[in-house]
Design brief:
This protein has one domain: Creatine Amidinohydrolase (Alpha-Beta Complex). The protein has helices at 8-31, 38-51, 119-136, 145-157, and strands at 55-56, 68-72, 75-77, 92-101, 104-113, 162-163, 169-171, 178-182, 199-202, 205-207, 213-215, 222-224, 230-232, 235-238, 245-246. It contains four helices and 15 strands.
Length: 251
């Protein structure tokens, strides 16, 4: 496994890529409301990305047909935007997006409530987000990759939620997906030692029910096997000599 260590120049480019993606997510959060189609969310997201002179990371990636992955309720990830899919009051929607800025990718996801949502749904969204922050507490030089995975796992296990195992986080940089893979559940192996200059997309995907998932016939959309709600939270993170730096959050 060859985990790339980014140069100072590469880190600067990834910081800018991440900042732009954070702005895109802010724009998308503003339009989430009952009555909007998942197609329009994708259109607005792509327009926002291109307004910064950037390219959507996901569009045509391995054939994916959109710029924003829009996943609703039991859809875990990779939902394909559709003009006929209209968000309803009480839905939850996960938006996963990536930006290419001068050849460097950033990757981030957020789950939002649509209008007023149930306490059960809000608790899932909150726990998924917090599990990310539990994980990056361990994202420090000298620690091992599994320290991040264990921290996410231990936090989520207290809720009885299912941690998706078929999909994991990953390195990110000049390619959207780089080594290493980053599971959100504890591993037997300690994994690679974290070093300054590593850039990681850490992304817990958490289900209210079972951890098991299925793929729909479109070969992209991943859904929970039991039809339960799923939430997703992701940021691109830089390993430093001290505290980890989240590249895809506005300061």
């Amino acid at each position: 496994m060859a985990v790339s260590i980014k140069s100072a120049r590469e880190i600067d480019l990834m910081r800018e890529s991440g900042k732009i993606l954070a702005e895109v997510h802010k724009r998308l959060e503003e339009v989430i409301k009952p009555g909007i189609s998942t197609y329009d969310i994708d259109r607005i997201g792509e327009e926002a990305i291109r307004s910064y002179g950037c390219i959507p990371s996901f569009l045509n990636y391995n054939g994916y047909p959109a710029s924003i992955c829009v996943s609703v309720n039991d859809q875990v990830v990779h939902g394909i935007p559709n003009k006929k899919h209209i968000l309803q009051e009480g839905d939850i929607v996960s938006l996963d997006a990536g930006v290419i800025y001068k050849g460097y990718h950033s990757d981030a996801a957020r789950t939002h409530g649509v209008g007023k949502i149930s306490k059960e749904a809000q608790d899932l969204i909150d726990a998924t987000r917090q599990s990310f922050f539990e994980g990056i507490r361990m994202a420090r030089a000298g620690n091992r990759l599994n320290d991040i995975s264990k921290a996410i796992d231990y936090y989520i296990s207290g809720f009885g939620y299912g941690i998706v195992r078929d999909l994991v986080g990953h390195g990110v940089g000049s390619k959207l997906h780089e080594d290493p893979q980053i599971p959100n559940f504890a591993q037997r192996r300690r994994g690679v030692k974290l070093r300054p200059g590593m850039t990681l997309a850490i992304e817990p995907m958490i289900n209210i029910g079972t951890w098991e998932v299925e793929w729909l016939e479109d070969n992209w959309t991943v859904v929970t096997a039991d039809g339960s709600l799923s939430a997703h939270y992701e940021n691109t993170v830089l390993i430093t000599d001290g505290e980890p730096e989240i590249l895809t959050m506005l300061q």
